[in-house]
Amino acid sequence: MTINRREFFRLGGTAVAGTTASALGFGSLEAVAAEVRPYKLARTTETRNTCPYCSVSCGVIIHTTGDGSKNTKAEIVHVEGDPDHPVNRGSLCPKGAALLDFIRSETRVKQPMHRAAGEAGFKPVSWDFVMERVARLMKDDRDANFKQASDDGKTLNHWPTTGFLAGCATTNETGWLTYKAVRSLGIIALDNQARI
Amino acid sequence: MASLQSLDVRNRSASTAVPPSVRKDLEVAKLIDVSKCIGCKACQSACMAWNDLRPDVGVNSGIYDNPENLGPAAWTVMRYTEHEEAGRLEWLIRKDGCMHCTDPGCLKACPSPGAIVQYANGIVDFVQENCIGCGYCVKGCPFNVPRISKADNRAYKCTLCSDRVAVGQSPACAKACPTGAIVFGSKESMVDHAQGRIKDLQSRGYDKAGLYDPQGVGGTHVMYVLHHADRPELYSGLPNNPEISPMVALWKGALKPLSMIGMGMALLAGLFHFVTKGPNEVTEADEENARKLKGRDAA
Question: Is residue A83 in a domain?
């Protein structure tokens, strides 16, 4: 398209007049409504849970996509403090507030892993394998090292060679059960962040 | 959903037509009590989680500020200052971010219609679809808050979680804060809350404690409780009396109606000239002379 000098001035003049007119408030009236970002949790499913980090065990609400219907695969999209939880009443620390990235972390362990003696890396194994193997090792070690009585004949029922590190983000009832199960085996070294 | 109707907009960038406010919306405010902040950055985490922002992993610059500055994906940043007062070390930690001014310099400076809106509840929000990335808001802001994204060349800053506030929730940072240093509510109740805190601080020897709600920008919807309210610049350079830059105020204030009148007058003058003198007629002789000019095509 070629434009000669005269046409250029004509076009330019029209453009200037047009923008001036609109700047002066003549043009069409614009809609002045503004929209905020759509609220992203409108129809997510809320599930109560406990933050897994420390022994404070803050209550969190996990928001998942979908309404739990048969053909929907739920996906966690947001985690936020639980306002009804007596411990934190909705607040969270920086780690708790960033739980979504913890859940989605590439290095997160999602299934039992086993590194056999002499092997270089971990391999995924079944829960059955894990239960059996841990039970076997515990039994062998307990049978070998359990001390029923001290040298002067006093009752001990100690299993001093194995320690137990328990989960802390649990209820009082789970903590009680943990304590009973572990102590009944004679384990002395029992701990978790909640100092049960 | 969550659409705010036209009547709920109080102010709009580069627009002559702003709807009259018929309904009165509740004016909201966030109060940041610097004396209660422990600098844990839960607010930063919560902000990124809610707004789906993940800034690139940066480098340790030797200070606690992380990221070191506000950015298009870091709308709030804790700024740490070590200050010595009468031989005692004070760690002044200020949560930096948009102050949601009543008279926002960014909105005043913005040339793109509807790229910056101020809702009736006091929130100043950037509407990225309308943003042209010129960066005038950065110059207009007395607190140096907006940042232009390199990904899409649009301006970003704290929205005061306008999407949460629109459905009756508090901003993500205020909800997360574990010490209650950030509180959210109506502007009135936040001023009330601040008065209680100031009285408490004064009884503990901070006799200059006070509320930071600078009147140079008409007051703000994010306010601070400061132990040294007489010296806000101690808190990582919080401006003592923030005002919209005189250039922006002149250009978009006094000069704007004058230039409008000027343009109108030019239009009118053109019209009168056309009516009285008519269009410029070119005679055949002029055309002939033009053709004779060397090196010129007859057009």
Answer: yes
Residue A108: inside a domain? no
**Which tokens hold the place of B284?**
């055949």
Pair A122, A187 in one domain: yes
A86 with A120, same domain: the answer is no
Which tens digit of pLDDT belongs to each residue from A38-75?
899 998 999 999 998 888 889 999 999 988 889 989 99
SS3 assignment for A38-70: CCCCCCCEEEEEECCCCCCCCEEEEEECCCCCC
d(CA A7, CA B255): 33
End-to-end CA distance of chain A: 84
Of B217, B49, B61, B50, give the one whose Cα is nearest residue B145.
B217
Tell me if A57 is assigned to some domain. yes
Count, residues in chain A = 196
B1, B4, B260 ranked by CB distance to A42: nearest: B1
Question: Token pair for residue A175?
Answer: 């903590």
A31 to B6: CB separation less than 8 angstroms, yes or no: yes
Interface membership of A54 toward B (CB under 8 Å)? no
Decide if A33 and B6 are in contact by the 8 Å CB cutoff.
yes
A37 reaches B (C-beta below 8 A): yes
Residues of chain B neighbouring A95 (CB-CB closer than 8 A): 45
Domain contains A8: no
Q: Which pTM value belongs to this model?
A: 0.82
Contact B211, B229 (CB under 8 A): yes
- B132: Cα within 13 Å, side-chain hemisphere: 10
Number of domains composing chain A: 2
* pLDDT tens string A115-165: 999 999 999 999 999 999 999 999 999 999 999 999 999 999 999 999 999
Domain boundaries, position A126:
113-191
Q: From the CA of A92, how many Å to the nearest CA of chain B?
A: 5
ipTM: 0.81
Cβ within 8 Å of A, B 196-255? none
* Sheet (strand B28-33) strand order: B182-186, B28-33, B222-226, B210-212
Identify the DSSP state of B12. Answer: E
CA distance B286 to chain A (A): 14
How many angstroms from the chain centroid is the CA of residue A66? 18
* Domain match, A125 and A180 both: yes
The answer to whether residues A118 and A152 belong to one domain is yes
Query: CA of B292, closest CA in chain A: separation in Å?
Result: 17
Phi, psi values for residue B217, rounded to 5°? -115, 25
